[in-house]
């Protein structure tokens, strides 16, 4: 009898251990990284390829998914939780490192965050302070995060990571790896001439695949992508700025005409305006909206030979204004040049 009880206890214990092991969150593998250079030429950093970006000169927000972007914008939404990296540089005059650390903490205190003790760290090779914290939103959601702060040449540089609930710990390898790529661009270098692909060229060249041909500024780069999820193939066209791009995707139209494709997908673009247009002689739709403040986006829908071609134009209003770079006009010219196959 005793041996049977012991045996049953051991079985239950083993199952409990196995269950606990299954519940452990698997760390995320660090994805391929691609370099980003700030619009003010103050810093550069390598970011996970495919993550969603929202930037303005001196500031950059990166989200692992569109859902994460939505969740951070509105934590009460039904969007799936994710993670965020925020990188910035701003002039602070005569302030010292401890001054900017205390200001950061004051902002956290206003949000009633739990602040853990400071940790001595480095950022871009400079002495820095790491401030870990937790911000409880409700009974189900807590945002965990930390910021690494440093001051160099009267400029505050910040690297902040946040994640909802268990996502924060899962993405720790990504946060740590990206932090090591943070590079401060000295002021003397920042004043040098910016890259020639800063402003879209009026001269164009062609990109083509099995589905369409499109003309784009010849000082920009077109990078083709393979199949991923519902996307058969894609192309990303961009120059210096990561948030001024043309994205072209080809998807299966599933025997639907353009009206039905549009009806089924327009809900993915809230607070938008739409109109029916023509592309390469075919009926098409255009949606205009702003995913976040300062960023403008247009999405085009057209169908040919049971292929849904989706074109996404994105540009930063501040970059366009600051550098007199008419991304909107150049990108519209590219869309109007498209030839469908």
Q: What is the structure about, briefly put?
A:
This protein is α+β, with helices and mostly antiparallel strands and 341 residues long. The chain is built from nine helices and 21 strands.
Describe what this molecule looks like in 3D.
- The chain has 341 residues and is of the alpha+beta class.
- The chain folds into two domains: 25-190, Mog1/PsbP, alpha/beta/alpha sandwich (Protein Transport Mog1p, Chain A, 3-Layer(aba) Sandwich); 204-340, Protein Transport Mog1p, Chain A, CATH 3.40.1000.
- Helices cover 25% and strands 41% of the residues.
- Strands 3, 4, 5, 6, 7, 8, 9 and 10 form an eight-stranded antiparallel beta sheet that branches.
- A hairpin with a 2-residue loop joins strand 9 and strand 10.
- The longest helix has 22 residues, at 2-23.
- The protein is globular and about 60 Å long.
- It starts with a helix and ends with a strand.
- Residues 5-23 have low confidence and may be disordered.
